[in-house]
Design brief:
The complex is a heterodimer of chains A (394) and B (310). Chain A is an all-alpha fold and 394 residues long. Chain A has 20 helices and two strands. Chain A folds into three domains: 2-37; 59-132; 185-392, MetI-like (MetI-like fold, Orthogonal Bundle).
């Protein structure tokens, strides 16, 4: 029995191994982003994110050269307490530290028989001392990157420290107004919502009307018209950008929310009609007939019956359309641009303008991913269904 | 169309105009945003870059010229477009095979373990985030530090194994592969989910019978599972080909099409909004559609056949 179980376990082992390795590979990049977004910016460019839980930089060097006398915590020699900021202030740079190490103390060489650290090690140790003495104390994790990203701070320190010392950039006022800074992710988040919500509701509403007519009304040309509308799914997005942006230029709609709402509505419709028609059309027709016999008009039947009964379809469609728009870059780039920057636009901009501002970029990227991830985990079933049904969308 | 045609109840009569009122908003918006631009792009592709005359104006003296089809000459034969075509081909070959093979592998393996839901959610998660977000995530993985410290995961790994750090996104040949890996990371979950749904439909009796008869798991997979889900695999492949042909965001965010990573959709964007050459951009759009539409039609047909038999 046990041997058989062991054999089965052994047979299953490769499956588990492959799966776990694949899952780890899939998770690691996102984990790196998440961890980095919570690290102080000085750390981000100094050490890889995977070292976040290991000893702070310089601890190893400190222990090798200083730990024996000064103790692991730096407090062993009371006259030379290395956690004392006043003392450490004198050794800000590696050369001042080296000078002190070469000096004699009470007639004895400072380092005794021990070898002196080289310049690189001395610099690392000096940085470490600044850290433990509180001159440049920083915690392992911080929310500063998120604050900086939300208000659009792009300086060399953090928003909070610059504001505290009154050195903030001209476009920041260090109060609640900074939440609306056009360079910030806070404003972009709001813009993304303003773009996505009407662009989700409008096509679904229009599609529901059309789908109701296709399902429960009679008019000539019903069949071929439905086929034609659904067939418009084959027209790719790229094909429509140029004429529409020319049209918008004439109408003054470039860079307006109305323009992008209408565009997303037009583009979401073929698939929305297809899905809604399939759903509303498959509702039991007795429901509609009896409502009609009771004197309900089409208008009432639509709002009181068809819409409430097709909530599952609307949910799938809504989530799919919402995320599609939330994550879209191309349409926002073409029709909104920098006028009303949305999240994707703002991040795209940051990637090109901040070469190595990883602490800001990772926080910004995570801000843009937070909502889709919540939607994904909370409504996974609807999400997957909407996505699968939409796999043929243009 | 596959939509079931329900008999419209004879008693629910309505005025002659009512259906059109219900259809009007949708018809209007679609006419303006899909039908008109579709036709207009076609027209623009034969016009010069400012839409003030025919495309013949774009010809340069002494250079080859296709007359009215001058924009198409650019879209089909110019050097940068050749690079774009070649890169799109690389994308199709590597990304489609990568996502489908990995998706199938994970779907089959995850079916046998207790943490199936968790594993699938992890693989599927990248699908929920934007290409831009994924671009940032992977740019960080590929980060190349010229100094001692490598904060990019991949280069740290290379260094730990004793190799030389590589600037993944600027090195020709390597960089396109690096971008394709991002695409695979994003879309494998999609392939996995569709294929897993199809695998659940493979009859358990047949699988059991084969196993009782002594067929190896390998044989069960190749001789029973794969043939049974072949229609789904076809749909997945076509869908992926269409998606890959339109690939834009990853390239735009990560390299901007520089260093030899150009693709068709990115080129169209640059011609239109950086070089302001609408005629060329329109011709590129038409070329892109000419490639996509057959695949789309094929796909919608197959998709509906599948829906009908489900």
């Amino acid at each position: 029995m046990n041997a058989a179980r062991f054999k089965r376990w052994l047979q299953g082992l490769p499956t588990h191994l492959i799966l776990i390795v694949v899952c780890l590979v899939w998770l690691l990049p996102t984990l790196g982003l998440l961890v980095t977004s919570f690290r102080p910016f000085q750390d981000v460019n100094e050490t890889g994110w995977w070292t976040v839980l290991s000893a702070p930089k310089g601890e190893k060097e400190y222990e090798a050269f200083c730990g024996a006398c000064h103790g692991i915590d730096g407090k062993a020699i009371i006259a030379a307490d290395l956690t004392n900021a006043d003392l450490v202030k004198n050794y800000r740079r590696s050369f001042s530290l080296l000078v002190s190490l070469k000096r004699e103390i009470n007639g004895q060489p400072h380092m005794g028989e021990l070898s002196l650290p080289d310049e690189n090690d001395a610099a690392t140790i000096a940085a470490y001392l600044r850290r433990i003495s509180g001159i440049e104390a920083r915690s392992r994790f911080t929310l500063d990157n998120y604050i900086d990203a939300v208000v659009g701070y792009r300086g060399r320190a953090t928003y909070e420290s610059d504001c505290a010392s009154g050195q903030q950039a001209l476009d920041l006022s260090c109060d609640w107004r900074d939440l609306g800074n056009p360079r910030g992710m806070g404003r972009a988040f709001l813009n993304s919502l303003i773009v996505a919500i009407p662009s989700t509701i409008l096509p679904i509403l229009f599609a529901a009307f059309a789908a109701y007519a296709f399902s429960w009304m009679y008019f000539p040309g019903r069949q071929w018209m439905f086929a034609l509308l659904v067939g418009l799914q084959v027209v790719p997005l790229q094909m429509t950008l140029i004429p529409i942006s020319r049209l918008y230029a004439q109408l003054g709609l470039n860079g307006t929310f109305l323009g992008i709402w209408l565009f997303h509505t037009g583009f979401g419709l073929p698939y929305a009609i297809y899905l809604m028609r399939n759903f509303i059309g498959s509702l039991p027709h007795e429901v509609f007939e009896s409502a009609y016999l009771d004197g309900a008009s089409h208008w009432t039947a639509f709002f009181k019956l068809a819409i409430p009964l097709s909530i599952p379809a609307i949910a799938s469609l809504g989530i799919f359309q919402f995320l599609w728009i939330w994550n879209d870059l191309l349409v926002a780039l073409v029709f909104l641009g920098g006028e009303h920057p949305v999240l994707t636009y703002q991040i795209g901009n940051m990637v090109t303008s901040l070469g190595s501002g990883w602490h800001l970029l990772t926080a910004a990227a995570f801000i843009s991913m937070a909502l889709p991830m919540i939607v994904f985990f909370a409504l996974q079933r609807y999400f997957v269904r909407g996505l699968l049904a939409g796999s043929v969308k243009g | 169309m596959a939509a079931k045609t329900q008999p419209v109840a004879g008693i629910m009569r309505q005025g002659r105009l009512t259906p059109w009122l219900y259809l009007l908003p949708a018809l209007l918006v679609m006419a303006v945003f899909i039908v008109y631009p579709g036709l207009n792009t076609f027209y623009l592709s034969f016009r010069n870059n400012t839409n003030t005359g025919w495309a013949t104006d774009n010809c340069l003296a002494g250079a080859p010229c296709w007359g009215l089809f001058e924009n198409y000459r650019y879209a089909l034969t110019s050097e940068i477009m050749q690079t774009a075509f070649l890169n799109n081909l690389k994308w199709i070959l590597i990304m489609v095979s990568g996502t489908v093979v990995l998706g199938l592998l994970i779907a089959v393996l995850a079916d046998r373990v207790r943490y199936e839901a968790l594993a699938k959610a992890l693989i599927f998660l990248p699908m929920a985030i934007s290409f831009v977000g994924a671009g940032v995530i992977w740019k960080f993985v590929y980060d190349y530090g010229s100094g001692q410290v490598q904060i990019g995961l991949l280069n740290a790994l290379v260094k730990a194994l004793g190799g030389q750090p590589v600037s993944w996104l600027t090195m020709p040949q390597v960089n396109t592969i690096a971008l394709i890996v991002v695409g695979i990371w994003m879309w494998t979950g999609f392939c996995m989910t569709i294929l897993a749904a199809a695998l659940k439909g493979v009859s358990v009796e047949i699988l059991e019978a084969a196993r009782v008869d002594g067929a190896s798991e390998w044989a069960v997979f190749w001789k029973i599972m794969v043939p049974q889900i072949m229609p789904t695999i076809t749909v997945v492949i076509t869908t992926m080909v269409i998606n890959v042909l339109k690939i834009f965001d990853i390239v735009y965010v990560m390299t901007g099409g520089n260093y030899g990573t150009e693709v068709i959709a990115n080129r169209m964007y640059i011609e239109m909004y950086t070089s302001f050459k609408a005629g060329r951009a329109a011709a590129i759009a038409i070329v892109l559609i000419a490639v996509i539409i057959p695949a789309m039609i094929f796909n919608i047909r197959r998709f509906q056949e599948q829906e009908a038999t489900r």
